[in-house]
C-alpha cells in the first residue's frame, strides 16, 4: 500500500466522520433550539403563551424550585387542595398565562388545559387530531387499558366493557354492595 492511498483513505474517513458529526450537530440544533422556538412562536400567534423555553432543560428548573418551596407545606385536615404541594407550578402559572398555556419538559412541549370547556372538547374528540401520547416508558409497563388506547383497539375494549357498565347492572351492584356487612 502506498503512502498516497493511505492518505486518501484517511481523508475519506475524516470527511465521513466530519459529515456525521455535522449531521448530529445540525439535528441537535434543530431539536433543541429551532423547533422549540418555532412551536412557541406559532402557539403565541394563536394566543397561547407560557413560561419561556430554556435551552436543554425547558422549565424543569422552575418546576423543581416551586416543588421544593411547596414541600414544607402541610395540608389542613379538612382541605383537599393538594395542588400547592404536588403541582405548584400550575398554581403560579395559570394566573400569569391563562387557563391554557405552554410549558416545557426539556425540549418537549406540553400544554396545560385548565379550561373546562376546552378540556371536554379535547377529551371527546373523535377526529383523531389529538392522539394520546404516553411518552413515559413506565406507563407502558402497566399495560394498555381503555384510557391508554386509541382507534380500533379502543373501540374493541369499549365494546367489551360497555355491558358491564349498563345502568341496570350498576343499580344491582349498588344494592349488593350496600347489602354486604362492613366489618
Automatic annotation (TrEMBL):
One GO term (biological process): lipid metabolic process
Location in the cell: Membrane
Keyword set, alphabetical order: Heme, Iron, Membrane, Metal-binding, Monooxygenase, Oxidoreductase, Transmembrane, Transmembrane helix
Any single Gene Ontology cellular-component annotation: membrane
GO molecular function, one term: monooxygenase activity
Main location: membrane
Similarity comment text for this entry: Belongs to the cytochrome P450 family.
Official protein name in the record: Cytochrome P450
Organism encoding this protein: Triticum turgidum subsp. durum (Durum wheat)
Amino acid at each position: 500500500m502506498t503512502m498516497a492511498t493511505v492518505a486518501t483513505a484517511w481523508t475519506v474517513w475524516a470527511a465521513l466522520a466530519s459529515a456525521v458529526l455535522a449531521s448530529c450537530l445540525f439535528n441537535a440544533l434543530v431539536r433543541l433550539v429551532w423547533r422549540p422556538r418555532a412551536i412557541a412562536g406559532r402557539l403565541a400567534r394563536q394566543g397561547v403563551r407560557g413560561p419561556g423555553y430554556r435551552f436543554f432543560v425547558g422549565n424543569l428548573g422552575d418546576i423543581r424550585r416551586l416543588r421544593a418551596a411547596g414541600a414544607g407545606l402541610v395540608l389542613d385536615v379538612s382541605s383537599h387542595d393538594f395542588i400547592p404541594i404536588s403541582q405548584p407550578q400550575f398554581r403560579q402559572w395559570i394566573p400569569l398565562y391563562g387557563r391554557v398555556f405552554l410549558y416545557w419538559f426539556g425540549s418537549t412541549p406540553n400544554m396545560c388545559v385548565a379550561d373546562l370547556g376546552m378540556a371536554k372538547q379535547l377529551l371527546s374528540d373523535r377526529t383523531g387530531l389529538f392522539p394520546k401520547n404516553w411518552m413515559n416508558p413506565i406507563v407502558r409497563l402497566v399495560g394498555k387499558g381503555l384510557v391508554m388506547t386509541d382507534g380500533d383497539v379502543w373501540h374493541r375494549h369499549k365494546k367489551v366493557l360497555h355491558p358491564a357498565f349498563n345502568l341496570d347492572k350498576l343499580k344491582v351492584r349498588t344494592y349488593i354492595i350496600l347489602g354486604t356487612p362492613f366489618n
